[in-house]
Amino acid sequence: MYRLPDPTPERSVPGAPWWPLVMLDVEWINDHAHEFDVFHLHFGFDAVPPAELQRIVAALRDNGKPLVYTVHDLRNPHQTDPSIHDVALDVLIPAANHLITLTPGAAQEIRQRWGRDATVIAHPHVVQLEVLDHPRPQRETVTVGMHLKSMRTNMNPLPVLRTLLAEIRDRDMDLLIDVHTDVLTPGMPHYNQEVSELLNHARDREDVRVHVHDFYTDDQLWDYLLGVDLSVLAYRFGTHSGWLEACYDLGTRVLAPKVGFYDQQHPGVLSFDWDEQGQPDSNQIAAALDGLPALPPWRTTRSERTRQRQDIARAHSRIYQAATAGRSS
């Protein structure tokens, strides 16, 4: 198999981690149809109008090119209004020759909503394979980490953070709070005064560390995750999590809300509920903190991820062969 390189847009920003997909374009498909056999879509269509997606699907069909779509998100974590993503899924899922998703729960929802079967192929490793051998540092005190990042649309960190601040006070634990600089800088798009005020108060506690910084590089992020024993995710909606996969790669336990299918990505994910007012279940969070020190190690191995990667490649190969043979799932 050969994968075409991702073309760089003419107006791309040097060093940018993301850019609009050049391939997701009717003209590109028509001009390059002779170069590929299968069109495999994962992400990158957030800003593409449904009518344009229809044209893209039609261009693939007119050129005799099968569409394989991996459904990572049944709810877009960057969009408050779920109907925007729903309309896009209503175009892509019925049109795809083959569907892939990451968990059995997501496959079941796809079957219920669209009457389509999706092949479940687990999320591969996120951290580089050689880093999986890095030992975890030894600590006398359990460290709980919560990273607010840039307050992505699906995050609801303040209620969870307040709960953690209250619960940590009564336990022999430290709380590490990370946040991007733009959240605490007045005038920046993601500035949040409420977060700024809460963190200013939290800084005074001996069992709390607040770390304000710009976006981590990959290596910095891996070091950060190795430095905490539990990573708490404060997502109010979503489907799957690459952050969770990175935690599993490095042996950092995860406490995630019972939304989407985070708990199906790997056995051993700790969970809590949201109530109707958007408040986390403090009893469930307290129980997770109490049980954390006695939990067994929760970490993949380099050999396990290598085997998984080979299995994923074989599964994709079978799907591509079926697609080019004209067999749909």
TrEMBL record:
This is D-inositol 3-phosphate glycosyltransferase.
